[in-house]
Amino acid sequence: MNSPSPLRIGLAGLGTVGAGVVRLLDTNAALVARRAGRRIEVSAVSARDRARARGIDLGRFAWEDDATALAARDDVDCVVELVGGADGPALTLARATLAARKPFVTANKAMLAHHGLALAQAAEEAAVPLKFEAAVAGGIPVIKGIREGAAANELARVYGILNGTCNYILTRMEHERLGFAEVLADAQRLGFAEADPTFDIEGIDAAHKLAILASLSFGTRIDFAGVATQGIAAVTAGDIDHAATLGFRIRLVGSAAVDDGRLMQRVHPCLIPLGHPLAAVEGPLNAVVAEGNFVGRLFFQGRGAGEGPTASAVVADLIDIARGEAGPAFAMPVAALAAMAPADPGDSVERCYLRVTVQDRPGVLAELTAALRDAGVSIESLIQRGVGEDGGVFVAMVTHVAKGQAVAAALKAMAAGSSLTAAPVMMPIIER
Amino acid sequence: MNSPSPLRIGLAGLGTVGAGVVRLLDTNAALVARRAGRRIEVSAVSARDRARARGIDLGRFAWEDDATALAARDDVDCVVELVGGADGPALTLARATLAARKPFVTANKAMLAHHGLALAQAAEEAAVPLKFEAAVAGGIPVIKGIREGAAANELARVYGILNGTCNYILTRMEHERLGFAEVLADAQRLGFAEADPTFDIEGIDAAHKLAILASLSFGTRIDFAGVATQGIAAVTAGDIDHAATLGFRIRLVGSAAVDDGRLMQRVHPCLIPLGHPLAAVEGPLNAVVAEGNFVGRLFFQGRGAGEGPTASAVVADLIDIARGEAGPAFAMPVAALAAMAPADPGDSVERCYLRVTVQDRPGVLAELTAALRDAGVSIESLIQRGVGEDGGVFVAMVTHVAKGQAVAAALKAMAAGSSLTAAPVMMPIIER
């Protein structure tokens, strides 16, 4: 029996993840070949800096200064893009690869969030796979879990902890009772946060991933612009403390659902009750919950980033391609995806955590509670804590189930008064 | 454009799960067709009793008294077997379907544990898929998660809570401080345990599932006979109580690993430290942990049984088949699976929980501790509880890391003495 021909990879990007893919294909070569039915070999690579030390031998691979040239090479059957960036070289390479009718594998959530549908369309026209398991939740096979594992279900909701940097920061703030800025600085020092952490801490990275998950889960067109996004910079150690007193932990959660024909997509720090699986997700881990009408609640947890987990997801895609797996990138042809209007965040109906800091003078609590009453929001529990360093009083409340518009109106009325010493903070509560 | 022809199903078995598959294909018909690229329709069915009320309209399906006849029907492209039983009609149908070169989908872990390799071989020869997502952990896509999602990894270990009945019983014993027999009787009344619960509570059902998972995880031949199996009937409320005092919960865990070229497979009540994801798995849920050399620890949790979750897994397999997905049942051709000798359970090296009940007389504790010392097993913690109803004293110990043979020798020495009032109980500890 002739051994089947190998799947030959053109690899663009040799940062942590790119080097990880090379290391994985070296370390697990025999095992990958057994599972894929053929060998998977890198034949050509491209990166910005050829000389950089990466701990891998690049001499055995052909080199291209211009990543786009990988797509055209005769010794490349499939391109892996680990360059990053929504546009620029990554997008040029994606287009060139699909135009050359070769499979394309990427970990680039920003590019998919912005150009995923156009690329999926190009992949369909070329009849080649476009795969991106590594783009969401790192090593956790959640794209496959939703696209295939839960495929028989109408999903009511998909949500999860999609950014390991934010989860690392929030859980360290919780365990060590430290402030946001202090933990962020330490996370940067330890390599858990980027030098420019904007995409992570402002929730943009999680929003990219959520937009991809929502499309897969609900059969809708990717709508990154429709994700209402709020980061974690406003969360204080006091919030975490009071949430704990009330039986909750604070996590940055990306959440999507279809409600009344509209697509709700939101990235927000949320309160999660102890006992909910997401409340136990610690440090840089990621986790995703999908709720289906037959399967019930599925929960996936694992490492959301880093060399090994991301390389694991990239090579899982390559094994699928080597096995001949194909099918549309977003589970159905792009033409079949529904264009769904975004939901109005004000239409949400849920319990909320509200935190205000106010001046320490008589009647302030009456002002706050009157603002809530006038907006029709009732209070389930309230904690008032004495004067802090800034001379302010910290008031944390959990509302009964209320409409988003009503809560916003109450916060607006509070802010219009004279007693607040800082902008009020609202966090939704996720129920068990 | 012509719409593609539907995938026509012959469905054998119309119990809870079979009826669930019919209901799912009715309820989610349009969505399943969008994701599968074609409609999936039941054309013929077979069950023991045609007249039984199932809440579904069978009049639209052809009927076969003999399930085997489904395989030969011209209007059946694919057979789904939900009859159950390791041999008998299920096996006859599997063989007939594969001989007819049609895809075969089953939830039958007993049949796979005993005949999975022969069936996989027949499927390979016929070049048709043999799929069984529903056979392990119900609705959780763990077969897919390991076969495909974690495919790039050498797995060090796979383990999990694979039997919902046992987990339901153990967690109720824990929360309500009740005895095993009492909770079992109540579970039977409520439908969480079968009238004959032997397969569940003795660990056999979990062992079937573990043997399948181990083969997929390690690329080894299925070896059900090699699973060392112990059920939960010996676990007492006192064990659960003392484990909690020491920071553990008790769960029935199926665990498999490759150690020194040998395959360790074990189903055993285990102590799990609080903080380990398996410790939080409550009631009838199932969960699986897979540890890969690149991805690290993956954790999957969901409903392990019941109409909806099992139907979800069966139809996920059908969608894969409708999409043209194929590939070997156990991730690689049967000929490539390694025949690995079973590990000697005595070679395990781990901490253990030991519980003995002894007569209430001076010197008994010295006897017990001498037996451990003589076997070279040292004690990390010990709890002795006063005289119980039977006049015995309850002693619970956690050992330091020790070899299985040494622990067994100590238990043997204790049992040979005159002070034990019941057989000693050993449970391994799973580390965080």
* Total number of beta strands of chain A: 18
The CATH superfamily of the largest domain in chain A is known as: Dihydrodipicolinate Reductase, domain 2
Count of helix runs of chain A: 14
Based on the coordinates given, report the CATH architecture of the largest domain in chain A: 2-Layer Sandwich
- Counting copies of identical and different chains, the oligomeric state is homodimer
Number of domains of chain A: 3
**Taking strands numbered 1, 2, ... along the chain, how are they ordered across the largest sheet of chain A?**
3-2-1-4-5-6
Report strand % of chain A: 15-25%
Alpha-beta content class of chain A: alpha/beta
Summarize the structure.
With 432 residues, chain A is of the alpha/beta class. Chain A has helices spanning 16-27, 29-36, 69-72, 89-99, 109-126, 142-149, 164-176, 180-190, 198-201, 204-218, 237-245, 307-322, 364-375, 404-416, and strands at residues 7-12, 40-46, 62-63, 78-81, 104-106, 130-131, 155-161, 228-229, 248-259, 262-273, 285-292, 296-303, 349-350, 352-359, 379-387, 392-399, 402-403, 425-428.
What is the element layout, followed by pairings?
2 copies of one chain form a homodimer.
Chain A: E1 7-12, H1 16-27, H2 29-36, E2 40-46, E3 62-63, H3 69-72, E4 78-81, H4 89-99, E5 104-106, H5 109-126, E6 130-131, H6 142-149, E7 155-161, H7 164-176, H8 180-190, H9 198-201, H10 204-218, E8 228-229, H11 237-245, E9 248-259, E10 262-273, E11 285-292, E12 296-303, H12 307-322, E13 349-350, E14 352-359, H13 364-375, E15 379-387, E16 392-399, E17 402-403, H14 404-416, E18 425-428
Parallel strand pairs in A: 1-2, 1-4, 2-3, 4-5, 5-6, 8-10
Antiparallel strand pairs in A: 7-9, 7-11, 9-10, 11-12, 13-17, 14-16, 14-18, 15-16
Pfam families (chains A, B): ACT (PF01842), Homoserine_dh (PF00742), NAD_binding_3 (PF03447)
Active site (chains A, B): 209 (proton donor)
GO molecular function, one term (chains A, B): homoserine dehydrogenase activity
